[in-house]
Structures
1.
Amino acid sequence: MSDLGTSGEPAGTEQRRDPPAPRQLARGGGGATAIRGGVHTDLHHDSAIKHVTGRAEYCDDIVEPVGTLHAYLGLSTRAHAKIIDLDLSAVRAAPGVVGVLTADDVPGVNDVSPTGRDDEPVFAEGKVEFWGQPVFAVVAESRDAARRAARLAEIAYEDLPHVLDPQSARDAGMPYVTPPLTLKRGEAAEAMARAKHRIKGRFNVGGQDHLYLEGHIAFAMPGEDDDVIVHSSTQHPTEAQHMVAHVLGVASNAVTVNVRRMGGGFGGKETQMNLFCAVAALAAKRWNRAVKIRPDRDDDMSATGKRHDFVVDYEVGFDDEGRIAAVTGDFAARCGFSSDLSGPVTDRALFHADNAYYYPDVLLNSHPMKTNTVSNTAFRGFGGPQGVIAAERIIEEIAYHRGLDSLEVRKRNFYGDAEDGRNVTPYHQRVEDNIAPRIVAELEQSADYRARRRAVLDWNAKGGIVRKGIALTPVKFGISFTATWYNQAGALLHIYSDGSIHLNHGGTEMGQGLNTKVAQVVAEELQVDVDHIKITRTTTEKVPNTSATAASSGSDLNGMAALDAARQIKERLTAFAAERWQTDESQVRFIANNVRIGGETVPFADLVREAYMARIHLSAAGFYKTPKIHWDRASGKGRPFYYYAYGAACSEVSVDTLTGEYRVERTDILHDVGRSLNPIIDKGQVEGAFIQGMGWLTTEELWWDDKGRLRTHAPSTYKIPLASDRPRIFNVELASWSENRERTIKRSKAVGEPPFMLGISVFEALSHAVASIADYQTCPRLDAPATPERVLMAIERLRE
Amino acid sequence: MDIRANIRFLLNGNTVRLDQAAATDTLLDFLRIERRLTGTKEGCAEGDCGACTVLAGRLDGGQLRYEPVNACIRLLASLDGCHIVTVEHLSGPEGRLHPVQQAMVDHHGSQCGFCTPGFVMSLYALWMESPDPTDTEIETAIQGNLCRCTGYEPIIRAARAATRLGSPALDALNRERQSIAERLAALRDGRRVEIGKDGSRCILPASVDDLADVLSETPDATIVAGATDVGLWVTKFLRDISPAVLVGHLEELRRLEVTDTAIEIGAGASYTDSRAAMAADYPHLAEFWDRIAGWQIRNMGTIGGNIANGSPIGDTPPVLIALGATITLRRGGKRRTLPVEDFFIDYGEQDRRPGEFLESVTVPRPAGGALHAAYKISKRRDEDISSVCAAFNVTVDDGKVAAARIALGGMAATPKRAHHAEAALVGRPWSLETVTAAADRLGDDFTPLTDWRASADYRLRVSQNLFRRFWLEQQDSQTPVRLNA
């Protein structure tokens, strides 16, 4: 945190003291009564100044040691084929090339499958299963030389039939990449048969590329014995460590993985960096030189996984009022050639196929389909958005069928409470914290939904070229890793004898402000200005066995672990102070950079120095595991989520019915983050997630040609939202009254993923505008993403 | 021939002289690898994300002019005589933040921070040009910058707020304007520059006449103006473009002249250079021009390049064809003039002979009474490549169509006129019926392709609907027929 505070004086310029004198800044503001940067206050991202000055160091900015080599991947140019011959002689002979690596050069196991299914080779062996699969790596004196050489490979293939999309995969009888999940409550088939109305439909939901601005990168330095240090841009240093050890055939204690910060992750760097870390480490050990690997954006997008696209077949039974009686759903996902995280991703699609709605009888099945495409992976929401949007499609279907406002249908189907018994999810967890009705009611008011909907209908009634649409959609999102053991975290806290604090935890910083929030927690607990706390790079050396920074869990888990560490030291300091000042521990209070001990006020740093001299241990390892959660996948029952986060968005759009072009006129958001640790950072997460969710459903289209080659592989062809795509009016509020009913860190709630699904309001508003063409009699069944083309074609369908 | 064998430019506060540069060396690699100025980032290496944005200053008619450009596709050798300003140069003494940087911090405009230096540089350029910008100006200035974290709102807030934090008049680049201009002027010695590395060659001709000579001597050379396309040959296809003849520094090739009858645009004029003159005569082109790529690319890419590279999806050729523009090609001292539409022969094939170069574009000034429109259809509104681009130039006389020039891009192997559709208009009453009948003939003019930007069906359908839009927009109607700009 140092760079937002007073810049530190260079240490060691004066005469040697032992221990060093308490630092000036650590004495705090003297008369100040409140610390700077406690919890529940707005605080800048800890790297803000480094970001704007270009001084924030990313992996590619680390100074390279003399002799650093560069690796580059050679990728397959077939979607599915046997490798008949792999001739790398021209690659080896190219200028600057030091050597090549293939599957034969892997000393350990040629596999980086994160769930241990042994289905994801570092380098293809004997066959390739998607266009863009790594077949070899070339290592050269410069990145340019390696990249040029990689293109010289001569690979002879014998083509095999390929399957690209989930529906074709089901039709072709392709296998599952991982066991499917069934969620079942009640007897859906019988309830469906009894229902007064029934609708069946199919919904194609597209995938999404992460398009983190900083692409994949790993930088390995060989050490003595089996040791290797890997700097990388990974969300999951521990897994990268395990994978490097696995590939090198060494113990985990030989491998250190470091991450200072990422230039965006969004899930794309949870498992996908394993490959790059493994190749860099392999080459570093092989040639005993530092080795960096950084693919070009085209190769990054071709060779690494994305959000799963789904084909959802749904059926809903309901009554005249639009109240749901039964739902069945089959969720087929494009998983790609290997399992990666497709198991938990497709599970989470089912966990969220109810969104905020009670399904009295329900049967949901996942179909994690193997396809000859890159293996899809985590992406903000982790399958949840695909489940949520299916629920919202079902609501839409009912609304058009019954001639109702879709918001009315939503309200009639919200989860209830213990009294009415309408509070059980398809996975048999009870919804105990349901604030969706309140959030939606407040947003309906503040966004002036009713009057604006009326105005939209009036506008459309004139029958012009430009049509409008409006929709208000909620989100309820379950928080916790569904892999229960992942819900643990560690932290390491040192207080140095000058009173400065060094904080380390297992989470990684990818822009979400995790380090800032965790520092705030420690600042609050120790009652010191946050500027005294330096957060250091995440490293497997300091906190072992960490979980991925994912599932929105970063501050929930690591904040609690850091709090535990801070409390331990605080207890020691308290005991020491009571003893030293001859008072009772209850008379020791930490207040604004000072400690009140009996009748005396001692600067924090002075107390620390005294404690050091008295040989008090000023370092602590903190730990946390989430309580209450359990999950039995086989029976489909349990409490996978500690709590739920809620939100709602209302969006209004205009659509040009001649071209399908559209514009988002206004979006209002009310989102629940419990008692926010840092409201301005949380608001930034909500705004950013909404735009990213909107992009997923509008302009971001992944397009494979019939040979299985991804043709949208760079920002020139893959279009994420720009500033001019954001709503013309954009009102974002946090539900300031909300407080987590569970004992989370300072009663806050997770924020990374839930607001992503607020983008669905734009998608449904587009659908509403399209529906006006046929006087709202027909659900337009718009597929996602709703590119201008899909919008126009839906309009044309309704005209017929 | 007096030849200089090095390039010289200013980088932040320093003068740089390089004796070696390959044709394929880029500014970004030079900054990051050679100079370790790592604040400038590589996000895409194709000029689409803006993480590598730097300012390029150059003398333009004696005036020093700074523009944001993409360092990733800016060729190193093209920097001769320029001033490159990177993010490292912005903070004041003792690391005091520049107003734009301070505004970005104050308004939480960074999350992961990777795109941030690029945004800072674009906003810096905007702040110097328009210190108190409108939201539209802000959006236009950052069309070429992608942010994946913030959703842009805090960046917009920062851009609005920067004006209150400092005045451009006090900015270092403005205070030192005179001395920088003098230093740049001193670097321009009017000599031809030839520089190379490991057999790769770059030539910067001394003048347009010298360019003609160079090309006569080296007819197989790659002509590079803004490098917004050639840059990708280098960064994406790893193509060898040597010998490369760079023309971006030739002020006389960027010249614009408006006569009584025509707008004469030097082939080296950028989209930015040509915007004002085009929009003055053809107001409908103001919005269209701002939808060509992003600001950085509009500062780099040239009208001549947009034609000469022969792309079927360039944005200006359909417009120029509809307006009846001509181009002048030159080889040695010989010039020939032909209509823009005749230049495009087939995919990848243009009517440019070895040693010949595109010297200028001549756009006729508007004839009274003609109806004009230019529409761009793309997946994303801004900074996208057209799925379809359609330009209309129709003269209606006494209720009947007297003349029609309609050209479309994205519909065929080349930008092309819709001859059947035009024929169905001319001589007929100017009515929706006529327009619909003409639109129905588009299938005779075009057999579009399906690709990742659009399907053949959509391309044809939307083109037909654009005919309807064109007609509807000419009617005196209260109801809007398209989304506002």
2.
Amino acid sequence: MIYTEKVMDHFANPRNVGTLPDADGVGQVGNPVCGDMMTFYIKVKEGKLDDIKFQTFGCGAAIAVSSMVSEMAKGRALDEAMAITNEKVAEELGGLPKNKMHCSNLGADALHLAIKNYRDRAAGGTEKVAVGGEHDHEAEEEGEAVEGREKTGACPYCEGPLEGLEKLCECRHCHTDLAECPSCGLYTKAGEPACTHCGTKLPPEAAS
Amino acid sequence: MKRVYLDHIAATPLAPGVLEAMLPYFREQYGNPQSFHRHGQAAAAAVALAREKVARLVWASPEEILFTSSGTESNNLALKGLALAHRTKGNHLVLSAVEHPSVLNAAKSLEKSGFTTTLVPVDRDALLDPAEVGKAIRKETVLVSVMLANSEVGTVEPVSDIAKVAKSKGVLVHTDAVAAVGNMPVDVRALGVDALSLAGDQFYGPKGSAALFVRKGVRLLPQVDGGIQEGGRRGGTENVPAVVGMGEAAELAAAAMPERGPLMAALRDRLIDGLLRSVDHVLLSGSRERRLPHQASFFVRFVEGEAMLLSLDLKGFAASSGSACTSKALKASHVHLAMGFDHATAQGSLVFSLLDTTSTEDIEALVAAFPPVVDRLRKMSPLYTEFLQEKKP
């Protein structure tokens, strides 16, 4: 199997699936182009996450990640829930395949957006849902080349090294700098301590 | 739990007798077909016999069959070998937009040495219009390459009509028939093609066995330079056991096809009708009428393909999907996008492909197991919730 037993358990028996019609905060990330969509609903009581429900359109990893995030956050104080990181979620699941790591990013993001939405509402905001985390793989693929810059790192898809890369692209959609993997030809985000798609740690010299 | 394998397009088991036919060529008959001694000559005779059997399966002459290691290699050899051999005539290629990556990427590689490519669009059933192919042909076109059948959506293309159009303009035609050969009747003369790729592992032969038909008199530049094997068109010692295995599988497939074809098609239709009837918002992908006899593929709305595959696997059914999440690069299938489907629909791709051993009971069991799988995932899907809310007055 490509997934750990823990992932398969959360996929087959996901915790906290559903919606909360009278939610105090709603966070939504992703779009069908990137493969996954997640919506988190939260109820807050005395500064704690009293109830959490989620809905996910996506692969096994996306469903398992949402379920794990909901379990890790339920009953926690808001600041504690905000401290849940993508790495912690993946770790709790016993690891995820490299090219599925971006799913774990979405899970934590959706929860954090729901909390942000709750806080915005408390401050007088009227938005019913906080939406974020969208990016467009196709636009990244079509990014235009920028000459003469060098980046390092590892490709999230084939794990090939990106060292010595001179070709750098900018996503037309979100203007992110992307480096092309010489092994598989795909792009990964450059200039970050860890790849935003997959969570792979990039050497510090890559950060700029 | 009984396991039901419905992923023929990924791999088939060996037909009965194929392994037994191969075994002697690993141990007793280990000679090199190029050697002059008896060991060599026995192996050479086995390769020659296999060549006849493979030729018979597609109505070709034995000397028109070249053995290769995979459908991918056959497609590479056809594209590069034909284009480069006819370079003085021109530098333009015409392909369909739904070709296998081994055809599309071979063309991309040729673009680096000065070729240009036109991709002919398909309709919503992934069908090509021969007239559109004709329009794409220019004075400097050297090759048209269109697949005979698409394994992802099951559509069988009008290759003989396309070949007529191309021939009338004096252009060579290759067809990637990997998904078709051994599963439906394929006749290279009736198709009117100059080259055709096939692979043994699509008709119950071993992996690593494949061939390229090249019509007599058509020039082809070798892409593996070496000795005089395969008439000097593909160097390297012959993979004798694999070649023998494919020969055996070809003979069995040719004999079984008249009876097996209609049976498979009836089972396929039972599966298609069963799933369309038992679950709402499911579409058949590809053409209903012009379809591979062993392939049934769908778009299931509001759910994602990999999640369906995992759920079906837990219930004992092996299938495949062309969804972005099941691809290593997390990209939607170029075939689905070329057919005009959006990313959300393409994410719901689900592909079943039947074996000759698939039974009516297997299909009935799948049709019964499928609705709860979709229900469960839809209950989790924000897209489905959104859809239900929009439907409410």
